[in-house]
Amino acid sequence: MRSTRRRTGALLAAAIALAGLAAPVGISLAGRAGGGASTPAAPSPEPAGSECRTSIRGSRVVAYCHNPYPSADRVQLHTECRQWWDVDADATPVDVGPGRTVRLDDRCWKQIASAWITHRIQDARDAPTAR
User: Fold this and answer.
1) Residues 69-125: pLDDT tens digits?
2) What is the pTM of this model?
3) Distance (Å, rounded) from C-alpha 102 to C-alpha 23?
4) What φ, ψ does residue 74 adopt, rounded to 5°?
5) How far apart are CA 18 and CA 113, in angstroms?
6) Which pLDDT belongs to residue 24?
7) How far is the C-alpha of 20 from the C-alpha of 130, rounded, in Å?
8) Count of CB atoms within 10 A of residue 90's CB?
9) Burial state string for 16-41 with b = 16 or more CB within 10 A and e = fewer than 16
10) Which of 5, 31, 105, 129 is least surrounded by Cβ atoms within 10 Å, i.e. has the fewest?
């Protein structure tokens, strides 16, 4: 009789250990299977924004921005001059419509330290309406 009790105890301990190891795996699989049905996938944002190419030659900077997307993009050229006494500049923002290319330019008196473009994507809600 003793061997039956030991065998039963060992089998019971093995079953508990196996259940303890299998429970997290089962919960994880149940969460994955049920998670897709209850929550829809997040929508991916539409691509937007202009592609800009900037070139610096001496004291002048020129940038061409092309917008291949259906939403408008407002671009602005920022220029930092190398000399401390030269005035840094922020050009007037320009709207780049769908399928359009714009040219932005600026200059410093002597040399340009850096130049960059900032973007502001405009939805149909943000775009000005024609009246």
Assistant:
1) 999 999 999 999 999 898 898 999 999 999 999 999 999 999 999 999 999 987 655
2) 0.60
3) 61
4) -100, 120
5) 67
6) 67
7) 68
8) 11
9) eeeeeeeeeeeeeeeeeeeeeeeeee
10) 129
